[in-house]
């Protein structure tokens, strides 16, 4: 493992820390409710009468007009006012997967989780309404990031950008197909007609993604980079889309696609071993392994490579494993040397709970080597330790979810949260008018309940400052996998 020295120094303490952690008593149900509520604070477009975060109002009602289409709706991805579709679609896929696995455990929150999914899929349907074209972004990011203003006041360019047959973008198209296919499973019984619409669109969008291959970096990189540039390529996105379409259809053409394309990936990726611990808006590898393993462990066509790599994923996360690929802070937090680190803690932990369940059903225990085994219970313990860390079981005894617990971030890097609401300040705030509030030492004026920030550094330190966006900015793709995690642990207090 080629971690920087600081990672090695703290990683040596990890096994001790995680082995002696005291059982926490967090209110996972309360955290679940708030984690879903967060998405209402990120909504773009015409807000419904049921909107619960009432300090947010209608915004971006002309999105898509520059291209003669309606692209209202969807989510702002983080603390800015841009709609980046690659991380948004990944977020929806994870919300849907959480509802598929754990929807029955959500209780009254399930209806709100489905509303959050549908707010995203309604937008993705609009983005894919023209055959041979997939809209990938709304909002000019450089102009947006130069302003600190409420989404309700935006006067920065709201250009819409798309990929098509002449300028393809396989990553965003394949992830959109995955989101639509996964969501079709969520709505299969509660709204069959909507489910069929989602699935039919997913099939068409995946066909486009596969037929017209190319990175969206090359097509619209001037606006997606460096914000959500694709550093990983699009092979995993195609596998991801095909896996979800097989899940939704049982059509063996998608199964065969996965089989054939997996061989292509193995032959063309020189560093495949480094992908075992990768799962996020850019790299989907571990998610593919875990998702496909479900069918392997249920006795389908014995395509063992996926199960083998899903096992490697589990061992790459386990703190005591000889093949561990990620670092842990001395306080026990999973850590990767990139911004918004809690996205990894939530996404990888969600996969651990899912793979634990699959293995428990199959009666399997994973051998990680050197006498280390990854039992289903051990995988859940690691996942739970990350959830508990986020909710306050950490050296600072600080919740990294806004509104949960008595000590949580007050000065998050988020425009709408930090600026006065329309109710309290109906006059327009122009581009630079928000600087006064950005620079203020006071807490944010509006509570973005349920928002989980980027989190502490490798030394478990956290600076509550709007200037430090790497650690204080919330994102939808941090919360996306967390919803399913919280639903699971709401019913599984002890693992």
TrEMBL record:
Going by the entry's taxonomy, the superkingdom of the source organism is recorded as Eukaryota
Q: What is this protein called?
A: Uncharacterized protein
